[in-house]
Write a structure and sequence with these properties.
Length: 179
């Protein structure tokens, strides 16, 4: 077991642990194979041509450790130059965060401009029947985004429909289009 968390990621430690594990598995399989061979060698019902001759187990050469590659060299350089590594990571992380925020703000919904005192200044005239669900939802959405919305009406009942919404910035625009 490693003494601390730094040893846990040491490539040499991982390779040694893996080699020890494979050697113990190999020794176990050799032991099982030997006991099976001994059992079958003494059975009379198995023909002699099928009985195996006991051979000493061949030992595979111990796995060699390859020379340090890019990963090992990078890990060593990072451990030697911690301040530079921290600065580079901070620089890249800050840059990525700024780009992420800018892209997120580009996707933001359009908002209406306001005057210096906070009053709404942009006006939209939305032509459609005040009884229509589409006109109603568009007017509510535009009002929520900060626009003053005017909906042209031709009768008193349409004007009352808009007034029933009780929204300060959705207003009826009375037009006489009959003549």
């Amino acid at each position: 077991m490693p003494s601390n968390d730094q040893d846990m990621f040491d490539i040499g430690y991982v390779q040694d642990s893996f080699n020890a594990l494979t050697e113990s598995i190999e020794a176990h399989f050799e032991s099982v194979a030997r006991s099976l061979q001994d059992t079958f060698r003494d059975t009379p019902w198995l023909p002699d041509s099928m009985k195996t001759i006991h051979k000493p187990p061949s030992r595979m050469p111990k796995a060699f450790r390859p020379p340090a590659g890019y990963f090992e060299a990078s890990r060593h350089w990072i451990s030697e130059h911690r301040a530079v590594t921290a600065a580079v990571i901070a620089f890249i992380g800050t840059g990525a965060f700024i780009v992420w925020r800018r892209r997120r703000s580009d996707r933001a919904k359009r908002r209406a401009k306001r005057a210096n005192n906070g009053a709404r200044t942009e006006v939209v005239v939305l032509v459609g029947s005040p009884h229509s669900p589409l006109t109603r939802s568009l007017s509510l959405d535009l009002e929520r985004r900060g626009f003053i919305v005017y909906i042209p009406v031709s009768s008193v009942s349409e004007e009352q429909t808009i007034q029933r919404e009780a929204r300060a910035d959705i207003k009826a625009l009375s037009l006489d289009i009959s003549s």
